Amino acid sequence: MNNTQKQNQNFIPLWSGSTLRGLGGGLLMISLLTSSFSQKEPVEVDGGFKVEIQTSAICEMCKNTLEKDLAFEKGVKEATLNLDDKVLTVVYHPKRTDAQTIRRRITLVGYHADTLARDSKAYDNLPMCCKDGAHGTPIPQVPLKAKDDNG
Length: 151
Known about the structure:
Elements: H1 3-10, H2 17-36, E1 43-45, E2 48-54, H3 60-71, E3 76-82, E4 87-92, H4 99-109, H5 120-124
Antiparallel strand pairs: 1-2, 2-4, 3-4
């Protein structure tokens, strides 16, 4: 058997059944992982809209920082962080702000907001207890996209 025959013997075409099943399974897994971290859409509530935003907050100091900062954000009526699941629930007036603006504000305070990466300078200014690994917490492993000017 020459070298070409040996190479062809190990060659599996991309369109073969087993490869497609493997690719399909991989694509399905990627799709499921991506959707589990996707941004939740705002829902209408009495007097405004409510959005739930996944954050990288880990302690009471983070909770106080985020809730106080968002209290001064134009259009935000209420912000409450649940530290158990790190979800910040924000009720806002839709004519004054929107969910993406709120997410960007969270990143400017130094925290991840859904798939938006935190601002590194703001993160550097957070207290040590609010940084990755503090309190024995694992470093967040969420698929993040870099911030851009358009949100």
